[in-house]
Amino acid sequence: MADSAPKPRIGLYPGTFDPITNGHLDVIGRAARLMDRLVVGVAINTGKGPMFSLDERVEMVLSETRAIVEQHGTIIDVVPFDTLLIDFARKLGACMIVRGLRAVSDFDYEFQMAGMNYRMAPDIETVFLMASERHQFIASRLVKEVAILGGDITSFVPSMTFDRVMKRVRG
User: How many domains are there within the chain?
Assistant: First the structure.
């Protein structure tokens, strides 16, 4: 009988990442410790009126996750997608979808989505990771708003992303 290696644990962390924040990186770093491969799925989601193009967001996530790859040794891939999340997870062979929670208000929406995803694919688990205390209030939407209105976002985003956001805001 042939030796069968265990199936690698592949997780999917989806989002728009417009822009990627320190909160996102916190969840990515913690999720990377739980699996063999983490795919950060960057959603097109034009309905949110993104500040950055899909290619720019993919590039920022790739750049900002390099340190996590080096630290944890986990494979992190960054892949754009424009399909139903559960179909994308199946295509990747993911066994779990990782979702970050900041506050109780996030939970209601995420709970509904987890239920829908479970009905469509009961073999793919949804795992919730609470944002660490220092990142619980950070939301990409708020980061963009603060930057546009001239506020300081240095503690909310990594340095390369900070430079990109400020360049975009200053036009």
Answer: 1
Q: What angle do CA 49, 53, 59 make, to 5 degrees?
A: 135
DSSP-derived letter for residue 126 is E
- Please state, in angstroms and rounded to a whole number, the distance separating the CA atoms of residues 62 and 41: 11
Q: Active-site residue 168, yes or no?
A: no
Flag whether 1 is in a domain. no
Q: Does any domain span residue 2?
A: no
> Which H helix or E strand runs over 111?
helix 104-120
Q: For residue 33, give its domain range.
A: 10-170
Task: Assign residue 44 the CATH number of its domain.
Answer: 3.40.50.620
| Amino acid residing at 53 | S
Of the residues 57, 99, 140, 144, which is catalytic? Answer: 140
72 is catalytic: no
Q: Among residues 72, 102, 132, 168, which one is catalytic? A: 102
Judge whether 163 lies within some domain. Answer: yes
Active site residue 102: yes
Give yes or no: 134 in active site: no
Which residue in the list 48, 66, 134, 141 is annotated as catalytic?
48
Taking only the tens of pLDDT, the chain with its 171 residues reads: 555 778 889 999 999 999 999 999 999 999 999 999 999 999 997 676 789 999 999 999 999 999 999 987 889 999 999 999 999 999 999 999 999 988 777 788 888 999 999 999 999 999 999 888 787 778 899 999 999 999 999 999 999 999 999 999 997
Specify if 33 maps to a domain: yes
